Amino acid sequence: MASVTGSSMSMTTLSYSLKQNQALTRISNFNSVSLSVKEKCFPSLRLSRFRVCCAAKPETVNKVCEIVRKQLALPADSAVTGESKFVSLGADSLDTVEIVMGLEEEFGISVEEESAQSITTVQDAADLIEKLIEKKA
């Protein structure tokens, strides 16, 4: 899957200015898009399928980092970020199950086995948590 990071985006029916850490949750009813990436403009891209994904809130990522440190008994000063892979932090499959259980308990959610298997990074976990919380609401 391709990924585009841009400073602005405009649609034929909607126009948004995307800024760092600004959440854009839903866009619908458009057929073409114009992107501006690092001052290069790519006008009128025709899209048959387009998805906008938003990263989890920093607070959620930080809480997941705390839970991962606790479950893996890592020192408080260990570098755990959204990009941290559980395997790189020394987690085996049992540790990952325990991390997911800790996340379920902390956030009051239930993670299905299929979803749990797709979690490989702290960011994956945080994104899934926010998606499940949103569904629950």
Describe the protein:
With 137 residues, the protein is of the alpha+beta class. The protein is built from four helices and four strands; from the N terminus they run ββββαααα. The model is unreliable at 1-30 (pLDDT under 50). It has a four-stranded antiparallel beta sheet with strand order 2-1-3-4, with no helix packed on it. The protein has helices at 58-71, 93-107, 113-117, 122-136, and strands at 8-11, 15-16, 32-37, 40-46. It folds into two domains: 8-46, no CATH class; 58-136, Non-ribosomal Peptide Synthetase Peptidyl Carrier Protein, Chain A. Helix content is 36%, strand content 14%. The two termini are 29 Å apart. α1 crosses α2 and α1 (58-71) crosses α4. The relative contact order is 0.13. The longest helix has 15 residues, at 93-107. The chain is globular.
What is the gist of this entry?
By secondary structure, the chain is of the alpha+beta class. The chain has helices spanning 58-71, 93-107, 113-117, 122-136, and strands spanning 8-11, 15-16, 32-37, 40-46.
